[in-house]
Specification:
- The protein has 349 residues and is an alpha+beta fold.
- It folds into three domains: 60 residues, Structural Genomics Hypothetical 15.5 Kd Protein In mrcA-pckA Intergenic Region, Chain A (Roll); 113 residues, Pseudouridine synthase (2-Layer Sandwich), CATH 3.30.2350; 79 residues, Pseudouridine synthase (2-Layer Sandwich), CATH 3.30.2350.10.
- 30% of the residues lie in helices and 21% in strands.
- The strands form four sheets. Strands 7, 8, 9, 10, 13, 14, 15, 16 and 17 form a nine-stranded mixed sheet that branches. Strands 3-2-5-6 form a four-stranded antiparallel sheet. Strands 1-4 form a two-stranded antiparallel sheet.
- α1 crosses α2.
């Protein structure tokens, strides 16, 4: 079982496959102590290094493709590390053994909504590449009047500093006074693209929420700062959209393992109202009296005890009356049981 080197490096999330070919051609990659060549195949157990640093890897057939949906709140940055120690989106994700989460696109610090993460760098690169024209849908609150002429201009295309840009669709969805809400769709993920298109027409975006990326829609029951994982069917649909072959699952053991991990991390929580109302509610719940952000303990730290605690407190499930009677009978002390041994007495030897 082997796989091409540049494909493995791209899937890890170190860059696109073409970029990794350039890195290999530059002599920066070694396999088992030897300078690697483009197209070389590696197997499990090989030692892989980039610029002298060891890199952990797995062959594609051994890895289950995973995709997370994360509901980014306002104030978090899309980076692994921040010199200013601001909260990052990666702080809330589950830990991967011998792997890493790759972010699909970005949202600026003031934007909220759907972010995708995957352990497959190749899938992430294809979803982000402009040539695949993957749709991104946003709910946008705009200060100012959007006239029919301005609307048509933004649909036809405007000239930005980094080239032309346009909305694929533009729909008004409500609002009061000068603050109106619109639903827009773009097929590129350039930096602050949606905001800059509106700014080119003298309009200011006061709120921006991503609600869809490709075939993935932000779940209404998902609260801000929480994540959920796509099932295999949704992941396969997302992969087919960018011409990637679906992978096989990991079997029953892998499914059971993921269920346990999801319960230990932050799960879905019931959510009342729309996206924006829930954001305000979550923001109020996460603030202390002095206005500082409250540090939330992971769920698994709040519910310690596991099997031992359950053994002490007793099972709290739903028994039928007959089952409960039998259970109570078994829990009586030995001397209270009407057993045949007590009736007949012990034999003397």
């Amino acid at each position: 079982m082997s796989e091409k080197l540049q494909k493995v490096l791209a899937r890890i999330g170190l860059g696109s496959r073409r970029y990794m070919e350039e890195v290999i051609a530059a002599g920066r990659v070694s396999v088992n102590g030897q300078i690697a060549q483009v197209g070389e195949r590696i197997e499990p157990g090989d030692e892989l290094r980039i610029d002298g640093r060891k890199v952990q890897f797995q062959i594609e057939d051994e890895i289950r493709r995973r995709v997370l949906i994360y509901y980014k709140p306002e104030g978090e940055i899309c980076s692994r590390n921040d010199p200013e120690n601001r909260p990052t989106v990666f702080e809330h994700l589950p830990t991967l053994a011998n792997d890493r989460w790759v972010m699909v696109g970005r949202l600026d610090i003031n934007s909220t909504g759907l972010l995708l993460f995957t352990n497959d760098g190749e899938l992430a690169n294809r979803l982000m590449h402009p040539s695949n024209e993957v749709e991104r849908e946003y709910a946008v609150r705009v200060m100012g009047e959007v006239t029919p002429k301005i609307r048509q201009t933004m649909l036809n295309g405007v000239e930005l500093d980094d080239g032309p840009a346009k909305f694929e669709s533009f729909t008004e969805i409500g609002g009061d006074g000068i603050n109106r809400w619109y639903q827009v769709v773009v097929k590129e993920g350039r930096n602050r693209e949606v905001r800059r298109i509106f700014e080119s027409q003298g309009l200011k975006v006061s709120r921006l929420l991503r609600t869809r990326y490709g075939t993935v829609i932000l779940p209404r029951e998902l609260r801000t700062g929480r994540w959920t994982e796509l099932d295999k069917t949704d992941i396969d649909n997302l992969s087919k959209m960018v011409d990637l072959k679906p992978r096989q699952g990991t079997g029953l053991f892998g499914m059971a393992k993921r269920r346990t991990e999801r319960m230990q991390e932050k799960p879905l929580a019931a959510r009342r109202g729309g996206y924006l109302r829930q954001q305000r509610r979550d923001s109020e719940q996460n603030q202390d009296v002095d206005g500082s952000r409250r540090e939330q303990r992971p769920r698994y730290e709040q519910n310690r005890g596991g099997f031992q605690q359950q053994a002490q407190t007793g099972y709290q499930g739903n028994y039928s009356s007959e089952q409960q009677t039998n259970t109570n009978e078994r829990e009586k002390p030995f001397v209270q049981r009407k057993s045949s041994v007590l009736k007949k007495g012990f034999k003397k030897y």
